[in-house]
Design goal:
Blueprint lengths: L8 H19 L4 E2 L1 H8 L3 H9 L11 E2 H11 L6 E6 L3 H8 L1 H5 L2 E8 L8 E2 L2 E5 L3 H7 L4 E4 L6 H10 L4 E4 L12 E4 L2 H23 L1
Parallel strand pairs: 3-4, 3-7, 4-6, 7-8, 8-9
Antiparallel strand pairs: 1-2, 5-6
Helix pairs in contact: 1-4, 2-3
The protein binds 1,4-dihydronicotinamide adenine dinucleotide.
Length: 218
Amino acid sequence: MERFSSISMAVVRRLPKYYRYLGELKKNDVKRVSSQELSRITGFTASQIRQDLNCFGGFGQQGYGYNVDDLHQNIGSILGLDKVYKTVIVGAGNLGQAIANYTFFAKSGFIPEALFDINPKLIGLRINDIKVYDVEELESFVRDNDIEIGIICTPKNQCQKVAETLARAGIKAIWNFAPSDITVSDDIIVENVHLSESLFTISYLLKEKEEVLKAKKL
Ligand code: NAI
């Protein structure tokens, strides 16, 4: 993937977490927060947080900490969340429909404009008022409607073909849920999501805990 700044991906991946926790603080009417307090709730060290935020100009004040509203807004705009993105969902099965029904994404500015599928039983339906089109129409729809993000929810043997169609239509980014890596040109941002990796981490930690407890009993 082509990058346009020197900010490391590790920093980029921490920003959404800061944004989420600051949103919670804001909801609870907290007005200011120190990097120590942010450290306690995010699990990152205070110096890590200060270092990350310094990449973008700092925002904190010595002896005061951070203004929650301002920092939340600043990180939101660093993340590009003050913008609206048009998306399409390809594959209108269980997952595609769940994403279409999950209104948080639209509320965060990621607007699903259409779903696409090959199944004639699904084509023409509306999921959360979003129409399911024949995947044959995907390329022209993306091109004609300036869609920026394609969300792939097809079986894994279909995801490369779908990614290529999205690429031909000029998509800027792909959020790929199919459990297979896709190959597209470097200028398209690809984010693969694997819920199973998170679940398998739980499995490892459970196993580790059991083993330690067993060893203690011996
Ligand atoms: P599903 O079988 O319910 O839905 C898949 C849909 O894709 C079907 O409606 C099918 O007709 C459609 N489809 C097939 N070929 C297509 C094509 N060429 N173009 C457009 N649509 C096409 O499957 P489900 O449960 O929704 O899972 C979808 C994908 O997401 C699978 O690859 C699954 O492994 C993956 N998945 C990934 C997760 C993750 O964490 N990354 C979690 C859950 C599912």
